[in-house]
Amino acid sequence: MTERTLIIIKPDAVQRHLIGRIVTRFENKGLKLIAGKFLQAGTEQAGELYAVHKGKDFYERLVRYISSAPILVTVWQADGAIAMARKLLGDTFGYDAKPGTIRGDFGCSQTCNLVHGSDSPESAEFEIGLFFKPEEMVDYEFADAEWLYNSKE
Ligand code: UDP
Ligand code: MG
């Protein structure tokens, strides 16, 4: 099923000059970029993004971190995009994440783990709505779609 997922290139990735290398992972895999915004989130918006973690011991630190510097907020579309993107991200903590994943290749921190990805269709819809209006997403066909998605007879 066609899905959309919110992928955020987090403050540490921007500061560490990793935007291009991270975006390339999603492009290489064949996910389609349909929206993007470079911004610094306010604490209110950051709090909403991580509302599911409110009350946990790392919540305040997480909100401070994500709103501390600019981020690149993107939306990617593909069949099964949510699970595919989570596999590309790797496990939450850099020191657990497998080599070959974004978090596994570029970091070893708990909080500063470079990238956010929605974890379900419900959270994707909610998270995308925090940053984008429907008309800000641009759907289109890739020129090589038949080859990329194995629909060539
Ligand atoms: N996080 C943290 N300490 C923890 C758990 C999570 O700092 O013990 C941070 C980390 O940046 C993570 C984010 O909170 O990406 C959201 O946590 P979640 O469990 O949703 O992980 P994710 O979905 O990002 O893998
Ligand atoms: Mg999460």
Summarize the structure.
The chain is of the alpha+beta class.
Task: Map the helices and strands.
Elements: E1 2-9, H1 11-15, H2 19-29, E2 32-39, H3 43-49, H4 59-66, E3 71-79, H5 81-89, H6 102-106, E4 115-117, H7 121-131, H8 145-148
Antiparallel strand pairs: 1-3, 1-4, 2-3
Features:
153 residues; alpha+beta; Alpha-Beta Plaits; 4-stranded antiparallel sheet; binds uridine-5'-diphosphate; binds magnesium ion
Written account of the structure:
The chain has 153 residues and is of the alpha+beta class. It has one domain (2-141, 145-149): Alpha-Beta Plaits (2-Layer Sandwich), CATH 3.30.70.141. Helices cover 39% and strands 18% of the residues. The protein has helices at 11-15, 19-29, 43-49, 59-66, 81-89, 102-106, 121-131, 145-148; strands at 2-9, 32-39, 71-79, 115-117. A four-stranded antiparallel beta sheet has the order 2-3-1-4, with helices on both faces. The protein is globular and about 55 Å long. The two termini are 20 Å apart. Bound molecules: uridine-5'-diphosphate and magnesium ion.
